[in-house]
Each structure stands twice: as structure tokens, then as C-alpha cells.
Amino acid sequence: VQLEQSGGGSVQTGGSLKLSCTASLRTANHISLAWFRQAPGKGREGVALLDGVGNPIYADFVRGRFTISRDNSRTSLSLQMNSLEPGDTGLYYCAAALWASTPDPLLATKWHYWGQGAQVTVSS
Prior knowledge:
Helices cover 0% and strands 50% of the residues. It has no helices and eleven strands.
């Protein structure tokens, strides 16, 4: 599975950005897709995911600001980020996992494939 990302960039506090990811999959059935991020000096943390049956799961810090979506082919993933804050700054990664559901799905160790990363910078 290869994941190709696009999007990201720099905005001021309160601004919006969109991230996109396309997965090279023969079949998207029961494949989960997610977004993670990593700030300088910190570990990789889960932001949001759509599990293999289409359930969205968000990290608490999202607080309704981000929306994760998947196209009808289930191989393209997007993350619309609104009301961005400086604390959202980091490298954002698309991820794929070969399971439909799992306990603690926002743990990075649960995911099998990763995109190349895209920088998101939010200035105050």
C-alpha cells in the first residue's frame, strides 16, 4: 500500500487548511485510514480516523474543528481543518491499517502504512 499526500501549508490562528491522501489499494474493503501528526520533539499522535466500516473517530483535542472524510471509492482521504491554533503545528501523516476496527485505534503502533508527511504551520 502506498499513500500519497497533498495539502498543508502555513496559516494564521483561526485559519483553515485541507489535507488529502490517496491510497494505492486493490480493494478498500475493511481498510482503515487515518491522520496523525508529529510536533517537533514529540511523538506521533492520532488526529482522526475512519475505520473499515466508516466510523469516524477523533482525538479529544480536535474539539469539532476538523472533519475527516473518504470518497466513494474509499481510497482517498481528506482532513478539513478549521479554527487552527498554533498547537496544531506539525508534520501531518496519512496512515492505513489492514483492520476494520481495533481497540485504541489512535495509537500509531496500530497502523501499517504511512504517507510522506506534510507540514502544517499555524502562526499566532
